[in-house]
Amino acid sequence: GDSVTQMEGPVTLSEEAFLTINCTYTATGYPSLFWYVQYPGEGLQLLLKATKADDKGSNKGFEATYRKETTSFHLEKGSVQVSDSAVYFCAFRWSTGFQKLVFGTGTRLLVSP
Amino acid sequence: DGGITQSPKYLFRKEGQNVTLSCEQNLNHDAMYWYRQDPGQGLRLIYYSQIVNDFQKGDIAEGYSVSREKKESFPLTVTSAQKNPTAFYLCASSIDTVGQGAAGYTFGSGTRLTVV
User: Fold this and answer.
1) Distance from B56 to chain A by nearest Cα, in Å?
2) Cβ contact (<8 Å) for A43 and B90?
3) Are A61 and A111 in contact, with CB atoms under 8 Å apart?
4) Which of A8, A15, B29, B42 has the fewest CB atoms nearer than 10 Å to its CB?
């Protein structure tokens, strides 16, 4: 069935390091792809999205490119800050009809000064 | 500003009691969802509602009930049948007219329920 696989956490980095969080999906076709971020004690916020192949979503210095060949949507940031410490969720959703978001299990990022 | 409001932020329940978590949205979204999140875990879908007066069970509906009498409101009741209700509960909504599936969800800030 449809699913999302994210890299296991926690990912521990020093401030200003480069971040990659891997995400791949298993589905027949080309759904819309999303990254959500959850700060401690809060709900999820949409970070970025891409709705078709080769689209790049970007926000707050984060980027992710929709790669249909590898069914991936890896999240990257060139220089992380302590304030980026959070849990990051990858998700996908079909663009036609009523379809629920399919979430990955989340990856915790810890950034130290 | 439009958004989703969950209340209360913290809730304590005695064993054997039912408790209702509130979720209200003013985004004019069609669909609403309830998720449960345990410490260090991902999201598990409890119930969802595509339109008013209709709702469907998610993956872990046992011990929970919902209603959708108004488009804006989707309250969740945690019943005494739910054996381990201590968790963080998240409500979400989305536009779900045909062709809007590329829209993501908007989440509330959550309710942390603790059984005492």
Assistant:
1) 12
2) yes
3) no
4) A8
Q: Which two tokens stand for residue A19?
A: 């971040």
Q: What is the token pair recorded at A100?
A: 């629920």
Dump pLDDT digits (tens) for B31-68.
999 999 998 888 999 999 999 999 999 999 999 999 99
What does the DSSP assignment read for chain B? ---EEEE-SEEEE-TT--EEEEEEE-S--SEEEEEEE-TT--EEEEEEESSTT--EE-TT-TTEEE--SBTTB--EEE-TT-S---EEEEEEEE--STT-TT---EE---EEEEE-
Rg (CA), chain B: 14
Residue A20 tokens, joined:
């990659």
Query: Which of the residues B27, B34, B37, B43 would you substitute to probe the A interface, choosing the one with the greatest number of A C-beta atoms within 10 Å?
Result: B43
Q: How far apart are CA B15 and CA B81, in angstroms?
A: 10
Model confidence over A15-70: pLDDT tens digits?
Answer: 999 999 999 999 888 889 999 999 999 999 999 999 889 999 999 999 999 999 99
